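REVIEWER CHECKLIST
Item 1: Sequence provided? yes
Item 2: Single chain? yes
Item 3: Sequence as submitted:
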Amino acid sequence: MKKLEFSEQRRKDYEALPTGMAIYQVIDGKIKTLLVTDKLCEMLKISREDLVANLDKSMFGFVHPDDVGRMAYFGKKFAAHSDEKYDVFYRWKTPNMDDFHIFHSVANHVVIDGVTLGFFFYTDAEESGKNNQILDTHYQKYANDQMYQDRLTHLPNRRFLEIFGMEEVSKLRLAKQHPVCVTVNIAGMSVYNNLYGLKKGDRLLQGLGELLVKEITEGHVYHNQDDHFLILTAAAGVEQKIADIHQEFSDLAQNEAVDLQFGLYDIQDDDQNIMTIAHRANSAMKEIGHDRRLHLKKYDPAVEEEDLEESYFLNNFSRAMDEKWLTAYFQPICSAKTQQPAAYEALARWRDPNRGLVSPASFIPVIEKHHLTYYLDMYMLWEVISKLRTWKERGLDLKPVSVNLAHEDFEMPHLVEKINNLVAGAGLDRSLIKIEITERDLSKNTGRLQQQIDQLRAYGFEVWMDDFGSGYSSLNALNDYHFDLIKIDMLFVRHLDDKSPLNRILIPEIVKVAHCLGIKTLAEGVETPEQRDFLQRAGCDYLQGFLFSKPVELDDNLQAVL
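Item 4: Structure as written out by the authors:
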């Protein structure tokens, strides 16, 4: 659509009108300013050229940040003709104005030469001396509109919060109060509904709404959705009010099936988006989880940072495998006698194109939390098999590689057969793959795991117990399961340098017991020559740790990638 051009005379007539007015046209989805009156330029203390340029760049460039969301909402409805009326109060300030002034803007659609235009009329309401009253009147006008009101509790709803929430924050600031946001959730509401029916559940929601309104004398209460409420109020005394509400709700519900949970966010001066504010309060509340000992959690930005990190790894996990961001690093396992590599342990590393090499402490817990370890472990197994096959094809001296499997892996159907088929299909000897299972995972499985361990060993795979001594039933595990090697937990090695002689007594005894059972031993976490020498004297078969090498990436020629 082309821009409508006024005749020179008509433009002069419009610009000379003794009222603040601007005419806009939507062209290819963008709002263009056709003209502004001299009076509007005078009101805003800005030249016509600068005003038009700024309006074309952004309709909200001079608007108070707290009012932008509301203006955008009604502006979009007006531009789309879904609401023919535009009647908005907001604050406006250009660089030459001393402070924000409250403007009242009304608009109508006008068709000229077949083109629909928006005629906007502006009045400076500053002279009335009732700024807050103007905002309150406008606020209450929409608060009583059924479109913005929850039908059950008659409280302002989520739509009202989205449009007017920052206005309420602004009112608290103007009243010299520090604003906070509180989210309120009824934990166990579905159980309550099942026990007593939906009608009684609705009465409970209504009762909570009335309780919140009674207690919150400054600010506003909103029925966000379902059994979630939100409060914007002053910070002073808010925690005591929350405690009072919590107690009164217990009296109201008279049932231990339900309880209130609160999330508290201290609104900052640079917060400009009400939904971001609500999200932060809600994030704090979610930290309570199922812990009935807590009813209030305050927002911690570090927790949100963790959530963002978690989301990043979850959203990119499949891509990391497809695009080989995930790769195998290899740490040598050395003979205690010769101190030369006898095997390697394969460890997962995430090489991110934007973040660089990511610590496994950042992504492994996320994968474990969301039960994705099977996919990572199978990916790592295939990476190791591929490396071993390449090294074999090049005639290199092959060393066995241990891979880690989690207890959840053994719950997948036909796991043992899959491992065996992958190794056999690659033409590798089964002695080249060692299977590591952590001691803590043994307590999470029953006789089925023992059968699978025996099946792996029957195929020719060695099975190792990782982190031996980290649990409470290490010796029982040696009796219940058949292992070829135990890896003594690195905490034993780390505390060898302590004044307490306990670990210096325990490690040789662990080695003796293992050897009596025909089980080899490996001590991990070896970092000093003194630790190495002690472990050699204790009779350990293998040693692993930074003293020999950190985990490194190995290329197709078995050389470390630097």
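Item 5: Key structural point noted by reviewer: The chain is about 45% helix and 25% strand.
Item 6: Recommendation: ____
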